[in-house]
Amino acid sequence: MNVFGVRTLAFTHYTIAQEKYSTRITTSSHIAMAIVSFFPPELLTIIFKECIADTILSTNDDPATRTAIAFSQVCSWWRQVASIPNLWIRLRIDICEGCRNPLSSILETWLGKSQGLPLNIKLRIGRDSGADFDPIRRLMKEISRWKTLRIYAETSRLLSYFLNKIEPAPALETVYVTVRQSGSWWHYQHPLDRLEQLRNRFAGSPRLCWIGIDRNVIATTETIPLRGSIFHLSLEYTAEKYTMVQSTGALVELLQELPQLKSLNINIPFFDKESIGTPHVDMMNLTKLLLEGADNVFAFLPRIRAPNLTNLTISRSGDSLSRNPLLAKSILDFLKASHSPPPIYSLELYNVPEITDQDFTRIFALLPSLEKLVIHNSSISDATVQELILCESNVDGLRRCLKRLELCVCENVHEQNISSAVRSRISRGAHRSEAEACLQVLLVDCPPVRKYDIKFLQPLVNLCI
């Protein structure tokens, strides 16, 4: 056989192999589509929702950007699922540094498939990416549909540039702002030059009720829009290079302008020294409070009057290595500030080794409605935990209501006391309903519980080790 014949034969074998491969692919696709046809639409919707939730519309030519679009074109079943407008209302847009790849077409597809429903937008603007090109301009045309807006800006200049472009957003309910880079000393002392827009630009958003400010941004009365309508406020100054100290007086003034506030999250590394004569703030509608940071942050707690508080979380930062003997006093002063203790049913304390057993007893005595108690990294003792479970010191008060107890890194708590206290609680609660007698106990990194105790307690109480 000559060379030409060999080549012809090789080409024939190659063609046959390609046809067999195509046949296998087609058969596999038909099998896959046949399997999909047996799935209920609800399951397909959940799968597609998970797929689309991680999709980032990026100016980089990332294939993942178009995953949801490709998914929706596989077969009639997926096309039917993809036609649900509610699946396309979340937009995660990443405008990267130095990228100018077209994003308009896929963004247009996303906006079209959402069919006029309210939009939840997460927008990241990279350094020097510029906020004045097609994706931003296209989003501005849909500003009447904005429901949630989260802006992650590399610099304060980019944040200001974007805010200056915003027009009234009548449906907007949530605004979250973060600046990654720390500014100069002058900017820390004069923060309003870049944040007055936050108040002015959202003045036309009557539904706005949630404000979140993170990293290198300082919240004052001059930066919060529509102050009387805000129900939820989150301040998280967690940038590593953040050196500006939040003024206690300024924060009090800010909270005084938020009479309808229901939840407050404060994570601030440093407060200024306590100013003599700084007034307290009455927060009659506040139900959830989270206070986190260095030791001197907790001195702010007694300044708050929250008679209707139901959830309180106190967390010392991991950098606070020294003990703070005033932490327990701050908590007690806060609980005693009102005419009657607030109806707190959930108390969470993190990194509080300085709170003594006596302080714990005093705190628990002021919480007659407590149902959930979480304590991490504490020196709380066996006797205090046993008293807590057994209701010995206050039979008609708090401990009878306790339904969940979570202890993590509490080295002075041992299994004998947990098991014996739960046994006694169960025997004493025989006449109670199942809901009243039920207690969930979670132990993490505490001295081990014996297998005998676990076997005995497991049918009677939700015990997790």
Automatic annotation (TrEMBL):
**InterPro entries linked:** LRR_dom_sf
SUPFAM superfamilies (UniProt xref): RNI-like
| Top-rank lineage group of the source organism | Eukaryota
This chain belongs to the protein called F-box domain-containing protein
Q: Which organism is it from?
A: Psilocybe cubensis (Psychedelic mushroom)
Lineage of the species this protein comes from:
Eukaryota, Fungi, Dikarya, Basidiomycota, Agaricomycotina
